[in-house]
Amino acid sequence: MRYFPILLALISLLSLGTLGFVGLTPPAMAAASQTETALRPEKVQAEGARGRALERARHQARENPSAYRSWKRQLPFWPRKTVLLIELAFMITIGILIGQVLEVAGWIGVLSVLAWPLIRLGRLPKAAGPAFIMAFQSGAVANSMLVTYRDEGTLNNRHLYTSVLVVSCLSLFAHLPTFIVPLGFAFGWMATGALFGVRFAAIALEIILVLIVSSWLSRRWSENRTDFNVPAQTAVIEGVRSGRPAFASREFWRKVWKRSQRTLRRLLLYVVPTFVVMALLEQFQAFDFLAAWLPGLFKPSFLPPQSVAIIPAQAVNMYNGAIAAANFIDAGNLTTKQAVTTILLGSVITAPIRTLRHALPTYLATLGARPGTVMAFSAQALRVLFVLLCTWVMVLVW
């Protein structure tokens, strides 16, 4: 039974790749559709100056892809998903190994200085620091590092779940700035400042509140932080660190690999089946259905009628919704303030789609079935709450 998770993962991976080569296609997709849904990015066409500015920005973002990305885009559905699954598993594996390398080498204390304000506010061990730094590059890698430390006893569950919520916020900072310049040219810099001011304020407030609650729980439970801190680097004796293998030695990497095996087995057990299920939902257009159905459930009276078209488009991606909003602004049917408010509330309404499609597979892979599901939806719920709060403040002030 020891190698059962690995065997299950390999069987699922081979089955996933085989589906692409045998050409398995559901009947609904095999039949030629007479009408294409407006939810697809390429079907939202710019109709005015603002929309064309966003369209140019979207095309520039897609120009000059690497040979690898071009090759990946040309693959059929299931082979492409197989490649994406391998990429996800590789990134999470890298995170697990990086976490162990930092711990075995004794570098956690050095890197944690960069995240000291967050660690101090949340009364977290130093091991959370490197993960917070890595979150700006990859949330999946950062969460993998945190789980590795929890498995080794460096973090407890409170530290882990608090840090995972903080990582989910920090990882957003790496993605939001890419939209600021194109939206600034399309909507104006005041509207763009309001839009991203709300998003950044919501992220900052969520981080602060999560860390304050973490600190309160630590004091209430009389938790001793020193029990979880990684020991400081020992003194150098005859050119070699006492108690730690040399970085380039075989013993060092053997220790890293031995500590990583438990987390890697859980990764293979959860990530492959979850990814296959998400791919099946995408192939059978379940996410397209949700994108069209969810906005119809929420029709606040204060939103303009045009939101019925903007929010489903936004469910596909940010550019899609922004171009739809820009078309209405150019036609004089929508003010800039209404467009910004609609886009912000649209991100709230479409949050369940993002959770299922993007966040859930990674959380399940790193945290396991039950905690991964709880954390994926908790992270989105908190984000929705603070976006609503900051949007309400924006409407009152602007």
From TrEMBL:
**Sorted UniProt keywords:** Membrane, Signal, Transmembrane, Transmembrane helix
Task: Kindly give the InterPro entries that the UniProt entry links to this protein.
Answer: MJ0871-like
Membrane-crossing ranges are 160-190, 196-217, 267-294, 374-397
Residues making up the signal peptide according to the UniProt record: 1-30
Domain of life where this protein originates: Bacteria
Keyword Methyltransferase carried by entry? no
| Protein name, entry field | Nucleoside recognition protein
Identify the species of origin.
Syntrophotalea acetylenivorans
